[in-house]
Amino acid sequence: MSCTIIVGGFFGDEGKGKVVAHIANTDRPTIISRGGVGPNAGHTVQVGTKEYGVRMVPSGFVFPDAKLCIGTGVLVDPRVLKHEVDTLGVRGRVFVDRRCGVITEDHIARDKGNDYLAKKIGSTGSGCGPANADRVMRVSPQAKDVPELAEYLIDVPETIDKELQAGNPVLLEGTQGFGISLYFGTYPFVTSKDTSASQIAADNGVGPTKIDDVIVVFKAYPTRVGEGPFSTEMPAAESDAMGIQEFGTVTHRKRRIGGWDGEMARYSAMINGCTIAAITGIDRVDSACFGIKDYGKLTKKAKEFLKSAEDDIGCPIGLISTGPEVTQIIDIRDELA
Ligand code: IMP
Ligand code: MG
Q1: Which of 26, 151, 228, 295 has the most CB atoms around it within 10 Å of its CB?
Q2: DSSP codes of every residue in 108-164
Q3: Lining residues, ligand 1, CB within 6 Å
Q4: Could you tell me the pTM of the whole model?
């Protein structure tokens, strides 16, 4: 049995979607199941020249043999889910836990219409905060109460457990990032739930003793969307001059860009129980590394960056992303002891 969790180590948008897609293609999990808050997350997956943005369906959908699940703790927006199932052509492979919280039009209106959430916190306006609040108040509908979701309903923890019992690999996909965890992040500038690996396990009803690996994804140049502290943030002019410009997958807001934060990386690795680190955007540290698939071909500058990042994180780097496309990655997990 092997159960792996993937989470974001900084403020979200670290490139988890791409790392999940690579691991799905390589490790061939029979189930890929999402934890995390809900459709406030946007993951980008690029296969060849085609780019997909997903908010509900797990990013591992690119591996066609995996069942795609949405764990119990996640909030489901039936409209977003239906749209993705239709556009990605994954009907029949997508399953939702019957107890998931459901996002209604009212939650979205309350998220967008609330100045504290929309302006001070800079929420994504996807209804997640109000939906989680209603879930805690025990007045929110569950997936099993919504006819549009009837075709997807299963017991996700039980489905995952059957695969683990059979010795099959399972991938639990986290969303958001450590810095916006409700518990451990920069409160109150955070999302509406914890985002650490323990939460992703809990979202899927997988007990801590069943987890084998926790992969924490760090971006060489971290980004943050929305408000809140960002200690290594650069002036936009500086990141623009470096050619780094990013826009949110969900909100299309311009992302704030910062330098590597070793202290945050270490703290995040500690709380996540990181066993393998993944570094994305190494081509921004040295553009000569773009698209490289072989560790030996990385430049001295990139290798020095990785060495120092590994010292900060305190656990080995097993994956290095060298560009946005799913195959632009160096996977040295096998070489780690
Ligand atoms: P909410 O989760 O929509 O309430 O937004 C709260 C804060 O978390 C805002 O600063 C959002 O920009 C941020 N946030 C929520 N989800 C994500 C994500 O998936 N990536 C990056 N930032 C996010
Ligand atoms: Mg994102």
Answers
A1: 228
A2: HHHHHT-HIIIIII---SSSHHHHHHHHHTT-S-BGGG-GGGGGGEE-HHHHHHHHH
A3: 12-13, 37, 40-42, 121-124, 126, 128-129, 175-176, 180, 191-192, 225-227
A4: 0.97
